[in-house]
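Data availability (excerpt). The following record was deposited with the supplementary files.
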Amino acid sequence: MPFDLPTMIKALRAVLSRDIVSFRYAGFVVLCISAMLCVRIFVQLWRFLDLLFFPGYRRQSINKPIYIIANPRSGTTFLHRILCQDNQFTYFKLYQTLLPSITLIKVLGRLGKLDQKLGGFLKSLANLLSRTAFSGWTGIHETKLTEAEEDEQLFLYTLLSPSVFMLFPFFSELSHLEFVDRLPNKTRHKLMSYYLDCLKRQLYSTGPGKTLLAKNVLIHGRLRSIMNSLPDIRIVYLVRHPYEAVPSFISMYAAFWRLHSPELEHDPKLSRDLATLLCDYYKYFMEIRKELPAEQLVEIRYDDLIADPEGTVKTIYRKFNLKMNDEFSAKLEREVVNTCKYKSTHEYSLEKFGLSKESIRDLLGDFLKMYDLDA
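Predicted structure:
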């Protein structure tokens, strides 16, 4: 499990360089870093047991994985959780990204079955922890430890993740986190070796004969490195209008900033920095899509997904020559009914964060034109 010490040093220097460091923020930093380091050590011990009990996982193949990607707040969670109901796929649940060990996942699986027989106390506890830990994202991104989730936590353990900006909102000091693809070869190779190792453990423990189904909205800055490591990767790219996706994503970070530094929630500079990062990711994908063979990419409009989830899923299956069994087909039909009942309570706008359509259009004119989005 690599750990980028230079990032930690830069982050702490940025904290100490502040004119005023509140006790609230300092305490939050100490708590988060201490918790992460303790969990890292705990997980590393279990990963060592994997080498003793399940050494064969290193020969696990990763064939034609499917990645659902987009800029954040573009429907990836919705689509991912629909497809996860198809048993031909295996996928990460949130607790599995927090505890990426074969031995630990199998132990927890047996505990879960025992808990089910004894009344479900542990499940209730997990749900309580989820509601407490992710209460700030209620109505924005429903998050549970036992739900299908993206694999960003695997990268957060290394500190080479844009998620670090939630705790350390210092974009200029930590700009190297935005694009792993631009880091030195040695760093990228070490990071990708660790990532592939995590994917092999996940497949080995949850579905060695299945197709890996992953989703990640912060993948863009490392997408080329992942494509080089998984040359037969298949990508579903969701397209949502930046005018909607950008402020929606900023609100997620703002919710976390509010926990440790309430004054930063509506800081226009931070909003601009985060918006610029997202716009850079939009533009970077425009470059990368040219390198993907047509049979490995399907692009889906967010509006089409919401209006017709069943038709969208069938489009993806046709594109990638996937078979749809009757069981999943029935689940898909039920999902259409649930979608019609759902009404989002999450309201957002560019203006709320000191941004404007003109500023986004200046940065993303080519992207808007490529996807024929109303500017």
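Summary of structural features: The mean pLDDT is 90.
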